[in-house]
Amino acid sequence: LRNLNQDTITQAVIARLAGTPDARLKEVMTNLVQHLHAFARETRLTEAEWQAGIEFLTAVGQHSDADRQEFVLLSDILGLSTLTVTQNHDKPAGLTESTVMGPFYVADAPQLSGGAKLSADRPGQPCLVWGRVGAIDGAAIAGATVEAWHCDGDGLYDIQQGQGEQRHCRGVLQTDAQGRYQIQTIVVPSYPVTADGPVGQLLGAMASQPWRPAHIHFRVSAPGFETLVTHVYREGDPYLDSDAVYGVRESLIVPWVEDTQGRCVIEFDFVLQRSLA
Ligand SMILES: [Fe+2]
Q1: 124 within 8 A of 259, measured Cβ to Cβ
Q2: Which of 44, 169, 235, 242 has the fewest CB atoms within 10 Å, i.e. is most exposed?
């Protein structure tokens, strides 16, 4: 292991992985080393660029905490999130498609009960989101857990608005005996991904458009079914074909219809896949 050079270093690192007890870890690390080295070799990475990369990743870590996830955003804009989601959720037709989780999921969102609004005190055009959670055979799933979250009327998530900010525009509810759910909230706009961190700066440097089409995030779970992470998008949104995080799927786009009282109504049914185990 002396005098290693650009032609021998890769095999030396891979050889050291030979004794990794966990077979999957060994496979993942071997592939990672091979591809990472190939990237440096093909790009002819300079030391200054390597240093800039280290500083960039350090900043991504420094902009991440229990609430904000800059690494998820980085994965999203690189398309890695969509690649991972799609290769793990290649579902038969009829099941609701999955899409990216995004950086703003919070596991302990407030329970919505007694007609409480998802939007809490945020102003905006009233919006009703409703539908049914069921299985592919049409059976209703009673007691399914529906978690929903979205930005406010200014295009910001609660956790982007600082520590101590009250939770808003996120909540959890359960479906009724017929598998139905109903959410009172506000209409959400298209929004640009977070610009004040290293990933936003990278998007700027790449002259990439930072906008996401208007959407509501959902995580739907029930015993005996695969957990579904998805979005519901607004038909006609100008960013449906240029989503900054590559998350749009045709089957998740629905009309957001204004009713006679000026309220927006979104109907969306979720069809869950039975657990394979
Ligand atoms: Fe979002």
Answers
A1: no
A2: 44
Q: Tell me how far the alpha carbon of residue 18 lies from the centroid of ligand 1, in angstroms.
A: 42
Q: Find tokens 């961190």 and name the residue.
A: 197
- State mean pLDDT over 247-271: 96
Give residue for tokens 């950086």.
103
To the question of pTM greater than 0.90 for the whole model, the response is yes
Question: What secondary structure does DSSP assign to 91-144, as a single string?
Answer: PPTTSPPP----TT--TTPPBP-TT--TTTT--S-EEEEEEEEEETTS-B-TT-
SS3 content of the chain, % helix, strand, coil (to 5): 30, 20, 50
- Expressed in angstroms and rounded, the spacing between residue 156 Cα and the centre of ligand 1 is 9
User: What's the mean pLDDT when you consider all of the chain?
Assistant: 95
CB 125 within 8 A of CB 234: no
Report residue 4 CA to chain centroid gap: 41
How many other CB atoms sit within 10 Å of the CB of residue 67?
15
CA 205 to CA 36: how far, in whole Å? Answer: 23
Separation of 92 CA from ligand 1 center, angstroms? Answer: 26
Please give the distance, rounded to the nearest whole angstrom, from the Cα atom of residue 216 to the centre of ligand 1: 7
CA–centroid distance, 136 to ligand 1, in Å, is: 27
Q: What percent of the chain has pLDDT over 70?
A: 99
Cα 23 to ligand 1 centre (Å): 36
Going by DSSP bridges, is the β-strand pair 170-174/180-186 parallel, antiparallel, or unpaired? unpaired
Percent of the chain with pLDDT over 90: 87
Report the separation in Å between the CA atom of 24 and the middle of ligand 1, taken as the mean of its atom positions: 32
pLDDT at 170: 95
Q: How far is the CA of 209 from the centre of ligand 1 (A)?
A: 15
Give the model's pLDDT for residue 80. 98
Q: At 170, phi and psi to the nearest 5? A: -155, 150
